[in-house]
Design a protein that fits this description.
single chain, 286 residues, TIM Barrel, 7-stranded parallel sheet, globular
Amino acid sequence: MESTAPTATPAGTLTLGDLTVNRLGFGAMRLTGEGIWGPPRDRAECIRVLRRCLDLGINFIDTADSYGPHVSEELIAEALHPYPDGLVIATKGGLTRTGPNQWPVDASPEHLSEALRGSLKRLKVDRIDLYQLHRFDPKVPAYETLGFLKQAQEQGYIRHVGLSEVAVDKIQLAQQFFPVVSVQNLYNFGQQRWNDELKFCQEHGIAFIPWYPLSAGNLKAQEALHRVAERHGATEYQVALAWLLAASPAMLPIPGTSSVQHLEENTASAGIRLTEEDLAELPKPF
């Protein structure tokens, strides 16, 4: 077993309800084909990636029934079941798939019930550690969606509930039904639309899970990132992840990849300590 690569441990820990995880996780979306559709090009490498996560101290894996669809969850079970103690697997429901890069929303209780049953079966578990609502559905009253999640939690199929792409008002609404332990929103050094939500999560003990951690749309921020990366002898992606970890103790980045080499490079970002000079150059969260 390899053991020389840096691990996720320097990132520290946070809690998801009664679960404690290292603050650098793994996002399993990329363990699929092009357009997040169908099987991956190199299935064996994807299996190695998942098993290497455990070697590197990564004990939080994020997936969804819509990745593939179903492919990501099936690979996780193939690679890691029976799951070791301390490994937290989060999945999501609320999207359907009609083709590559197509993500219609369906957060009806009927669809979520089918999605949850499918995730339980594919992941080979009796209860999902963290089940996240992928999106609120404008066609479905929010109380119906949230009521289903509350019922599924009470029935023991879900341990903890999280939300994705939500504003503070929706978090507060959901909290009337169940404790919200995580919020997964698009967030990175160049796109900080959800600063209010990050601040709310930090103040209320909710994990904030940023997806799409490296933005190419903010040229000024990109140039600053490049300078900081050069100073640390690191890649821009590594510094972007280190910036997320430094931005808030509530942050739980989940960089994804289908390559063991890239997984190890991403994990090394947990050990990068940005200086005051670095942070002064990079955008400031909230």
